[in-house]
Specification:
single chain, Anthranilate synthase, binds the ligand C=C(O[C@@H]1C=C(C(=O)O)C=C[C@H]1O)C(=O)O, ADC_synthase, isochorismate synthase activity, EC 5.4.4.2, isochorismate synthase, IsoChor_synthase
Length: about 450
């Protein structure tokens, strides 16, 4: 079998030397419930979806970077971190051994720092319920044993963070653009599409949650993970949310993506019409067109890295608690190079980001218009968020349906919509509210 191509490089000056890790098997757990017992600290790094995930604590190493080379530099840093690493791993499956969590800025011009973080302790659970514990250290003297790993985990778990109850002073405030300004931006975007400059443009806006007492991130994440079990619930360094969209997942030599485009709010759906979503979404030329643009952009970019690729000829309707989406799953076999290596998950992220689902088509025209019309620093919103292991396996979602914890009592929420020729500003504004809803509710707020 081919493995993703992470060739270790020698350490650079200033780089943490000699990562050491041990991964030990733990009793099987029901990931739907068991992993949630570990989401008890507001500073945990989290990646959870029914059937598996990773919850991590502490920090052994960190890399931050801005600019157009952020993906290349992050890969290089990771390769160097792996150089000379001592890895004891009972399981040797994706997610065990050395791993890094990551979050990348949406834009190559963003001042926001993209980051890779190597945690100290990781609790993992595979889709089959197999559970493990990893301890990572840069200390050459530290003991690598199951006992040491359990003791480190117990120390983190002994200091859980309390939940919070909503207070009368909690409120939602406007972000950078008012609702009217956002609708004007959408109308402006539609004009550019009508003028033939581009076929799709994604415009986002933000709102701000002001809380009376500090946000209880762990509580928010547990709520999201339970309610949005088809989504990937993530937390990396204050970027939190539950995304329905998988940019790329690499497991040995298979890559998978879930592409979404086309959204219907469930809040206004007629209760007595079971075919409503299928009719309105899968029966709408506008929605199918928008979806096709997103699929084409992904498959065209992924194609050179693959030996074969499959996706359904028709999108399916993905039902989430807040909205329905038109969705397509793509599975590809990765092509191996002469050394038998396939691209790593981060190499594919670099090639794929930003997709039409969060930027538009063509990418450069859409990117320039986003900067002109949005007036928003997207920061990590709509950027890749996820994890990578030493073999290059990993899962990278698109950071949607999420928020950034800016201060303990201020949380900024982001949501955007695909604008095509027939888009109506009022409908797109309403759609942003439907996309804010998971986070608004998880924070204990209402609109
Ligand atoms: C941009 C967002 O979502 C994206 C836009 C969608 C759409 O316009 O229909 C659907 C899913 C995502 O690809 C967001 O949630 O902020």
């Amino acid at each position: 079998m081919s493995t993703p191509s992470l060739t270790a490089l020698p350490p650079a000056p200033g780089q943490s030397r000699g990562l050491r890790s041990i991964t030990v098997t733990r009793a099987d757990m029901d990931p739907r419930t068991g992993l949630l017992d570990y989401v008890v600290r507001n500073d945990a790094h989290t990646w959870i979806r029914r059937g598996g995930g990773l919850v991590a604590y502490g920090e052994t190493a960190r890399f931050t970077v801005t600019g157009p080379d952020r993906f290349t530099q992050a890969q290089e840093w990771w390769r160097r971190e792996l150089a000379g690493a001592e890895v004891l791993d009972d399981l040797g499956i994706p997610g065990t051994g050395l791993i890094a969590f990551g979050s990348f800025a949406f834009s190559k011009t963003s001042p926001h720092e993209s980051r890779l973080i190597v945690p100290r302790v990781v609790v993992g659970c595979g889709g089959d319920g197999r559970a493990w514990l990893t301890l990572i250290t840069a200390d050459a003297e530290a003991e690598l044993s199951a006992e040491a790993a359990e003791a480190a985990l117990a120390a983190y778990l002994s200091e859980p963070d309390a939940g919070r109850s909503p207070g009368p002073g909690d409120r939602l405030g406007p972000g950078v653009l008012s609702e009217d300004q956002y609708q004007r931006a959408v109308a402006e975007g539609v004009k550019h599409v009508q003028a033939g400059e581009l076929s799709k443009l994604v415009l986002a806006r933000d709102i701000v949650a002001h809380l009376e007492t500090p946000v209880a991130t762990a509580q928010v994440l547990r709520d999201l993970a339970v309610r949005y079990e088809d989504c990937w619930t993530y937390a990396v360094d204050g970027l939190i949310g539950s995304t329905p969209e998988m940019l790329i997942k690499v497991e040995n030599n298979t890559a998978r993506a879930r592409v979404l485009a086309g959204t219907l709010d469930r809040a206004n759906a007629p209760a007595d019409d079971p075919d409503y979503a299928t009719r309105v979404l899968a029966g709408s030329e506008k929605q199918l067109h928008e979806h096709q643009i997103a699929i084409d952009s992904l498959t065209e970019t992924l194609q050179p890295f693959t030996s074969s690729m499959t996706s359904h000829s028709e999108p399916f309707v993905l039902q989430l608690p807040n909205v329905w989406h038109l969705a397509s799953d793509v599975t590809a076999q990765l092509a191996a190079d002469d050394d038998g290596r396939v691209p790593t998950s981060l190499a594919l992220v670099q090639a794929l980001h930003p997709t039409a689902a969060v930027c538009g088509t063509p990418t450069t025209v859409a990117g320039a218009l986003i900067r002109e019309l949005e007036h928003l620093q997207r920061g990590p919103y709509a950027g890749p968020v996820g994890w990578i292991d030493a073999g290059g396996n990993g899962e990278w979602g698109i950071a949607l349906r999420g928020a950034v914890v800016e201060t303990p009592t201020r949380v900024r929420l982001y949501a955007g919509c695909g604008i095509v020729e027939g888009s109506q500003p009022a409908a797109e504004l309403a759609e942003t509210w439907s996309k804010f809803r998971p986070m608004i509710e998880a924070l204990g707020l209402s609109r």
